[in-house]
Design goal:
By secondary structure, this protein is of the alpha/beta class. The chain is about 35% helix and about 20% strand.
Length: about 270
């Protein structure tokens, strides 16, 4: 079986003022995802923006974006319920009513840069239960060791079905730093049978992606995580980042997972 590549084309923070190739509108995001699919991405991790580029949980914008992607390619849809720090948890959790194949589940409230990323315990459990009802696979985003413990408690409560799917997010101010030691610590503590990927934010992106692949993890690439292809060189869209990741996988004598392989690897509901 191969390595799953997830493309994260937009995110909640970067703007076109920082990199003019960032896709923010539904058709722009759809085009970026399609190009990433052609380079080997099997999963699209989606954030949505309004006409002013602000993060939004608007169901109409989300539907339009997903529909535009589905018209172009069969990539698997993973919706972010993180959305953005300015959007309420109650608005964010409604996105799972669109019934994507996957959606993020962030287990803990935390400092996030200069703001606060609110994930109240009762709300997180309510969202986990609703995702279970709808057959939406949780992508468990953990930014520190205590976040992993919170996920394991939800598993023990019966709110999460296996195999558990983790994204280890390192490099956010307020979470664990993007270092090999922190990655190893979290990987060693993952439960048996879990599938995982590393999400390294900023300048450590390429280094930790390579280490994660060597440790048996999957990979994420895209402008949510870095706006640079290399030091001092802005990326010209998401495609170069995805292509670089696919080449890295092949250079390690691994294969890039197809969409069908990814459904099996991630244990997605039919």
């Amino acid at each position: 079986m191969g390595v799953v590549i997830t493309v994260a084309p937009t995110g909640p923070i970067a703007t076109t003022a920082e990199n003019s190739t960032l896709p923010t509108q539904p058709l722009e995001i759809a085009a970026a995802v399609h190009a990433a699919y052609l380079e080997g991405a099997a999963v699209a991790h989606l954030h949505f923006r309004d006409e002013n580029e602000r993060p939004t949980a608007d169901l109409g914008i989300a539907r339009d974006t997903i529909a535009a992607i589905e018209e172009r390619c069969p990539i698997l849809i993973q919706v972010s319920t993180g959305v953005g720090l300015s959007v309420s948890f109650e608005d964010r959790e409604r996105l799972v009513e669109l019934r994507p194949r996957m959606a993020t589940l962030n287990p803990c409230t935390m400092s996030f840069g200069s703001g606060e990323f609110r994930n109240p315990p009762d709300g997180v459990r309510r969202l986990a239960a609703r995702m279970q009802e709808l057959g939406v696979k949780p992508e468990l985003e953990i930014y520190d060791t205590g976040h992993l413990d919170a996920c394991l408690r939800m598993r023990d409560e019966g709110l999460l079905d296996g195999p558990l799917q983790f994204s280890i997010v390192l490099g956010v101010a307020g979470g664990a730093a993007a270092t090999p030691d922190n990655l190893l610590t979290l990987v060693r503590r993952l439960p048996e049978g879990a599938v995982w990927q590393i999400i390294a934010i900023g300048k450590a992106n390429l280094e930790l992606t390579a280490i994660g692949l060597a440790l048996g993890g999957n990979a994420r690439a895209g402008m949510e995580d870095t706006l640079y292809l290399r030091k001092g060189e802005m990326t010209q869209g998401n495609t170069p980042l995805v292509a670089r990741t696919a080449q890295l996988i092949r250079d390690l004598d691994l294969s890039v997972a197809s969409v069908d392989e990814t459904v099996s690897l991630l244990g997605l509901p039919v």
